[in-house]
Request: fold
Amino acid sequence: MSGIYLIRHGEITQSSPRRFVGQSDLLLTDRGREQMRQVAGYLVGRGVRRILCSPLSRCVESAGILGSALGLRPEVVPDLSEIGLGAWEGLTVDEVRERFPGAYEARGRDLAGFRPAGGESFADLQRRAWTAFEAISGFDSTQAIVAHGGVNRVLLCRVLGMPLDNLFRLGQDYACVNTLRVDGGGFLVGAVNMPPS
Reply:
């Protein structure tokens, strides 16, 4: 039986009002780096043999902090990248409402299937990320995956049999740890949104 630590990257700088981040390539804050050092301390001695991560800088840096502590070189998996929000990237909710009348409300009515112009739906993200996750989970020893709030939520929805319309019921704080066990071809969830310390 193998285990998977599904981890969200550490804190990034957020503007006020908040903006849609998606695949914008943002760096960790100093606090985010400290959060990931705490995650690394938690993982030491837990038998992690492999670290995989999204190609976005916030995950590459987070995975690098873990790798330094565990003596492992992270592997980048492109399909673990965060949801692509297309024309919404970098905009506030008010800006989306102004530039794309009715679109924000349409997304609220169909969270799983709605695609912003040039972007992905959460269903698209789940298909993409799940394919990568299945390949990763075939590795027969414990591994850590450093990804994003959206990616982690769609994967957990699939494992738990939850509809994607409920994905925001799953908390995914910066640097949180979700634990899963691979058992007989299925997955057992041990913890969700566990703080790093």
Observations:
- The two ends are 25 Å apart (CA to CA).
- The chain has a mean pLDDT of 95.
